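# step 3/5: fold
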Amino acid sequence: MKPYAYGPKFMWNLDASVGKLAANSDPADVAFIQWYYTLAANFHLTNPENKAIYKYVKVTGSCNGRDNDPLAAAIIAQQRSMNHPTVDGKVSVVTGTGKLGAYAYFLLRLEARFAIMCPNAWPRLDLIPNCPPILMAVSKFSVPILTELGQ
């Protein structure tokens, strides 16, 4: 995972794709998406049908990339409920402008919902309760230290 500027917004980008038939090669990337679904499973604005699917996702940092993986099922459910143009069970690395046609990449749409769930802390992942240690390290590393800025 790494910081990503989307227009005037600070977002997060993946180093490798996550989910069904994805690379699933970076534990921080996988944990980030898994963590999102564990939070969304308990968020009052998540529809009940999706909550029932999301509750099976655990933060492990690994995904087998097959249909039987709870993370792939959660991604597919959210892509369908958002009417995302591509329902493939995969969260791709954001490239270029951050858009595919008229739609933002699924990752950016997911993060917009993450920001709604955690408005007082987003995008500081380390300030969100129950932040997985691997993501806490990534988040803290991305915050500049004054001495790095020559101050």
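# step 4/5: annotate
Strands lie at 2-6, 9-13, 18-19, 90-91, 99-100, 103-104.
# step 5/5: archive (pending)
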